[in-house]
Structures are given as structure tokens and as C-alpha cells.
Amino acid sequence: MKLAFLLFEYSPYGGLQRDFLRVARAALVRGHRVQAVVSRWEGARPTGLEIVELSVQAASNHARMRRFAEAVAGALSAFGPDQVLGFNRLPGLDAYFASDSCFAEQLTAKPSLVRALPRYRTYLKLEQAALSRAYCFFLNDRQKDEYLRHYRLAGDRYEVLPPGIEKDRRRADNATALRADTRRELGLAEHHKVVLFLGSGFRVKGLDRALTAFAGLPRDRAGNTRLLIVGNDDAEPYLKGLNEDQRQRVHVLGPRDDVPALLQAADLLLHPAYRESAGLVLLEAAAAGLPVLTTDTCGFARYVSEAGAGEVISSPFQQVSLNRLLIEMVDAVPGSWSAKGIAFGRQEWLYRLPERVVDRLETLQDSQ
């Protein structure tokens, strides 16, 4: 088939972008022709993937997205795809990979005057266009239920995907050596308790919450604890509330490509997100044997609880609960969380997302 994959922007560090690339590679392996239509591509260009960059200029993100949606129509007309898979809310899709929570659901908490602003009207209109005819891939049951509250989708128009972890996240045979080498590179001693904050988009991922909890560690734990901040974002605004001693124990690493090594080097993943449709890093950490401390607003937090691979803070969020659990887990890691996470990561269904998406695209084509 000729497949068009639509993604507003690609960089190698976002969870959505990684899902996009995994699905594209799975389609290429099966012999399909795949054209990626984006407004910007950052990073290496995979062999076999045709990339079309559409230049869109506007003063706001929602205006850029609207213009991207308009420009996509011309690109699709020239390519003539058999199936169009969108990784953002866009019109004209045959299938929609719903990486975001339902926008209509988010609007229910907004005052009517706010809902009338151009940003909200634009994104809602794009979501309505995407859901009008597309087959929908959801990342978890909670996300699916949100969409079904606002859109009438027949049972044959959607499915919930498995998480889609990359297999290199699992605990490898060389994990001990990898841990030692990575700690040595980062200037970390073996006796240090290392807390990892991993993910781009620091505001939504809850870096402020993480730093408050880290700064609240009692003195007898604090001196031996280090925090690694990894992601494609600016951490500096969040660090202003730390004193000099606390700042010295925080390592801002920026975006990194050696995630499997970092998962082995750390002792605990701290991910107190405000909201997140999925949160793949939670399952990657669990599969690597890294205990997880997160919030129930992450779609994949339920797997952490069910596997016994960490602790999940219930809503409504309370900073005091995060502070307390961080102290308890720093004292106890690896506990039983590590072994349970490793056992959880041995389940093959966790790695089937790309194949499931391509299976469905082929089925949709056969049914036409």
C-alpha cells in the first residue's frame, strides 16, 4: 500500500514521535510505501521513509496547526495514498492515532468564555473533523472512555492498543556493567541513590512537583541522593527555588539517546505528571527493573499498580503524599518493585503496538 503518515512535528525524543517512527518502520518492513508529512523534521532520516516537510508560518501554535491541516490536503492529493494515518487531530484521516486526551473532555472544565477563544475553537474543530470518519487507535481504556463520552463511535471503529515498549528497555544480561559504566560517566558513586526524571515537556510532566519533593528530602537522605533531569526542555526556570546545596545534587542532562543505560544507572523513576494519556516511560522503567513513583493521571499508571512495579499517587494530587513516598522509596529501593517490573516486562504483548496498527491499516484497505 501507499501510506501517508501525518505528524505536525517530528523530533527523536517525544513519546508520540517514537510511536510514529516505530509504526512507520513496521509498515516499511512489510513492503508498504510510507510518506511522512510533517511541518518540521529534526534528527536522522530513516532509510526508506519518504519525508515531506510543509512550511507553515503563524504567530501561535493553534494557527500553525490549522495551516498545517490546510497544507496537508495538497500533499495528499499529490501522493494519492491508499490509507491516511494521522498522529494529530486533522481532517481527512482514514485512521487516527489518539496520542492526546480528548480535547472535548478537557473543555468541559473550562468556562464558556474561555471555550470561545480561537485556540480552543481551532483544536476542537480539528478533533471533530478527525473523529467524523476515522478509525481510532486508543492507548488505554480511560482515554477511550473519554472520547466515547463525546463522540459516537461504533464498536468496529476503534480499538485499544498494547503499550508498544521497545525491547531494548528490558533488563539486559549486561545490566550491572551498564549501570557501573553509566554512573562513572555521569560522575555518580555507587552509594548514591539516583532519582531519574525522564520526559520532554517539563511543565506537564510535573518537574516542579519532582523538585519540590527532592528538595524536601530530610538532611540524612539528601546528601546521598542525586536527581537526573533528562528531556528536550529548559529546566532552568524550575531550578530557581533550590538552594546551592540542592542545586549541586541535580544533574540536568538535556535530551539523551542512551535511555536504556540511564534506566539501569538510576534507582528510581520519578514521574509526577499533571496529565498524560499514556506515559510509556513508566512501563519502560518497570521492564528495566527501575521502581516507579508516579501519579494516577498517567494512562499507563494502572500497569505500574497491577504489576507491583512501583507506587501510584491517587487524585486529587497532594504534594505531601509525593514527598512522603519519595522518602520511603529512596530508603527501600530496589525493594520488590524491581523484580516485579522485570517479570512484567517479559510479556510479549507489551511490544506489539506497531504491528497491531499496521495490521489494522491492511484490514481497512481490504475492506474498501
TrEMBL record:
Specify the signal sequence span: none
The Glycosyl transferase family domain covers: 181-329
Please give the start and end residues of each transmembrane region.
none
* SUPFAM superfamilies in alphabetical order: UDP-Glycosyltransferase/glycogen phosphorylase
Superkingdom, natural source: Bacteria
Q: Which GO terms describe its biological process?
A: carbohydrate derivative metabolic process
Q: Could you state a single Gene Ontology molecular function term?
A: glycosyltransferase activity
Record InterPro entries: Glyco_trans_1
UniProt xrefs under Pfam families: Glycos_transf_1
Official protein name in the record? Glycosyltransferase family 4 protein
Q: In which organism is this protein found? A: Alloalcanivorax xenomutans
Q: What lineage is on file?
A: Bacteria, Pseudomonadati, Pseudomonadota, Gammaproteobacteria, Oceanospirillales
